[in-house]
Amino acid sequence: MLHRLQYISQGKTPAEHINNIYTLLDSGVKLVQLRLKNVEKNIYLESAASVKELCVRYDANLIINDEPQIAKSIGADAVHLGLNDMKIEDARKIAPGMIVGGTANTFEQVKQRCSENVDYIGLGPFRFTATKEKLSPVIGAEGYTSILSKMQEEKLTAPVYAIGGIEKEDLETIMETGVYGIAVSGMLTRASNKEQLIKEITKILYNA
Known about the structure:
Blueprint: E1 5-8, H1 14-26, E2 31-34, H2 41-57, E3 61-65, H3 68-74, E4 78-81, H4 88-94, E5 99-104, H5 107-115, E6 120-123, H6 140-153, E7 160-163, H7 171-176, E8 181-184, H8 186-190, H9 194-207
Helix pairs in contact: 1-2, 2-3
């Protein structure tokens, strides 16, 4: 289920998020994270249900950001939690058996996430990105290399997704650090030829 390329939804409105997801599913994306901020729960639930239908149609997997109850209600595959969101163990009580991912910015936070038994870690930001408020300190390729080598030393095995301001020309350098995959928004949302870009990204991610 954990495809190496994860699309994190973008848009000014829930409808725009859904439309962007639809376009990218139609272009070949197989793992989507619906990330709606500052919307009412009922709108999030309706949007999530619509995206779930699209993911079923395209044989893709769906992650819901922040809301394990919504993830459970619509039958999502996973939920992703930030460091200031609900505890991982509480999310597992709400949605037993569901994949749970968590955000980290430092090696200490990676250790914390591994002790919480997350199924994957979103580690970032790689560089500055305007898509996230209250951005954590930028990690860069050297930071990933350092954190991933410490993970190896301490036998921490959670798959790590690089996230934050990633562009296509960064991919080979990022994959050389030992990360499992990438989670991106802008690079895919803005792309003029999405299908071709996804093919090129996928080739790099799976041949690295």
